[in-house]
Design a protein that fits this description.
Blueprint: E1 4-8, H1 19-27, E2 32-36, H2 45-49, H3 56-73, E3 77-80, H4 88-105, E4 108-114, H5 120-128, E5 132-134, H6 143-148, E6 151-154, H7 159-166, E7 171-174, H8 181-189, H9 194-204, E8 220-224, E9 229-233, H10 242-249, E10 258-261, E11 264-267, E12 272-277, E13 280-284, E14 287-290, E15 294-314, H11 317-321, H12 323-341, E16 346-352, E17 372-380, H13 383-398, E18 420-437, E19 445-451
Length: 455
């Protein structure tokens, strides 16, 4: 089989890329232009709210390059996890941008839309049939969990993207998708090794992050062959190395030898990474291991209230030296006030400059900092209650009389006025489970003929 070339413009749609790198990729005459549109990495808010975490201007800029090139070359353009979280609201948001571009650039193509939202009753029936399985040490999935969900999506594999390709779609927007799928579906349809196609997709979904030096905003080329694939940089500033590619093969994996996905996993035990010059690396030896039963991953979120935050700093060494005890006493005082007023909520403190990132998992006790940033956070059933709790916390800490205190005007320096910031509704992931299905027919496919040239 001839070499199959895949252009990955950027790590996530909307992150951008240098025009020069993209045009180098187009000069290679790729067979496919594909990009990952999102992730769970930014947290549960975006799935719950239906909002994109990437900027509309940035997404439209990237898509304009991709759509024009795809139509000119006559090759498919595939976006996975469109809109950031891949629910219907995100997919429709991305669809509207595509239609705008088609009208502005006078582009004609068949558009495929693959929705990833899962009907609650379908999940409940799977629970009753004992076809769900918990991940990440979560409790077994319950019907109550499903009822509480603000949104639930499932990660699709390659089946529905291939169906869209079979239907003649030249631009495909997929809802929540297994990260490699937007890259691997077309070559798998054409008969290339699923293991190599999936492994290549695993790396291409992060584009130049897998290069040295890494970047989330640069283009790369993947070249798939019968028994190997090659990664090629498209910028003189980067190169792939055996170390960078091997490291990215381990990226976001709990098991260094296996990457699970819908219908099976790729086995990396026999993989080799060989530098072949020109900043390129050739990869061989990936194997695909099918699972017993076809399982897809569910991702669901529920609302847990509303958040208000306040950020302040202190440079008082006396306060810094006893900050944990001070915060404990302030929380006790605030809790008592809240109880008297019948208010409920969660109070958290994050100490930037001490242990805000690792918290209790910090392996080494840091040296006494010269200054601290203190992020005060209140989460409550309503925004008004969160505002009230944050206000009480902030004023209590501002004027708390700790042992040895010298200054009496206030303990904190605030970078903003007003000091308290409403952060809106708060969501948490509570569904992170596998569900066994017969096939991927649960993901609806819609097609439409886009006639931008005659608009």
């Amino acid at each position: 089989m001839k070499e199959f070339k895949i252009l990955s413009p950027t790590a996530i749609l909307g992150y951008g890329f240098p025009e020069s790198s993209f045009l180098r990729g187009i000069a290679e005459k790729p067979d496919l232009i594909a990009v990952d549109g999102g992730s769970v990495d930014p947290g549960p808010y975006y799935l719950g709210s239906g909002k994109a975490f990437t900027n509309r201007v940035g997404v439209k800029r990237d898509l304009r390059y991709m759509l024009k090139a795809g139509v000119e070359l006559g090759v498919p353009v595939v976006v996975g996890t469109a809109g950031g979280s891949g629910a219907k609201a995100h997919l429709d948001w991305c669809r509207d941008i595509v239609l705008e571009i088609a009208a502005e650039e006078k582009l004609d193509f068949k558009l495929g839309l693959i929705y990833a939202d899962v009907a609650p009753e379908l999940i409940k029936q799977a629970i009753r049939d004992k076809k769900t399985e918990a991940l990440a040490d979560l409790a077994p999935l319950s019907e109550t969990d499903v009822d509480q969900a603000a949104a639930v999506v499932a990660q699709m594999g390659t089946e529905r993207i291939i169906a869209a390709l079979d239907a003649g779609c030249r631009v495909i927007l997929a809802g929540r998708a297994y990260d490699p799928s937007c890259f691997s579906s077309l070559p798998i349809k054409l008969g290339y090794d699923p293991a190599l196609a999936t492994h290549l997709g695993k790396i291409l979904e992060c584009a130049a992050i897998a290069a040295d030096p890494g970047s989330g905003a640069d283009s790369v080329l993947g070249i798939l062959k019968d028994d190997a694939f090659i990664l090629k940089p498209l910028s003189d500033a980067r190169r792939f190395t055996s170390t960078s590619v091997a490291a990215h093969s381990l990226y976001e994996k709990s098991d260094p030898y296996s990457l699970p996905g819908p219908g099976g996993s790729i086995d990396l035990r026999q993989v080799s990474f060989t530098e072949i010059g020109g900043g390129m690396v050739e990869v061989k030896g990936t194997r695909f291991v099918p699972t017993e039963g076809y399982k897809i991953k569910l991702e669901g979120v529920r609302s847990v209230g509303f958040r208000t935050v306040s950020m302040a700093g202190t440079r008082d060494p006396i306060m810094i030296g006893q900050i944990e005890e001070i915060l404990k006493k302030v929380q006790e005082s605030v809790d008592a006030n809240l109880a008297n007023e019948g208010l409920t909520g969660k109070i958290s403190f994050h100490l930037y400059g001490k242990n805000a990132v690792m918290g209790a998992l910090e392996p080494d006790a840091p040296a006494a900092p010269q200054e601290l940033g203190i992020l005060m956070e209140a989460v409550a059933p309503t925004q008004s209650e969160a505002d009230t709790i944050c206000s009480i916390v902030r004023s209590s800490l501002l004027h708390y009389g700790y042992p040895g205190r010298i200054a009496t005007a206030g303990n904190l320096a605030f970078p903003f006025s007003p000091s308290d910031i409403q952060a809106g509704e708060v969501f948490e992931f509570h569904i992170y489970h596998l569900m066994e299905v017969e096939d991927e027919s649960l993901f609806p496919l819609e097609t439409m003929d886009v006639k931008g040239a005659s608009a």
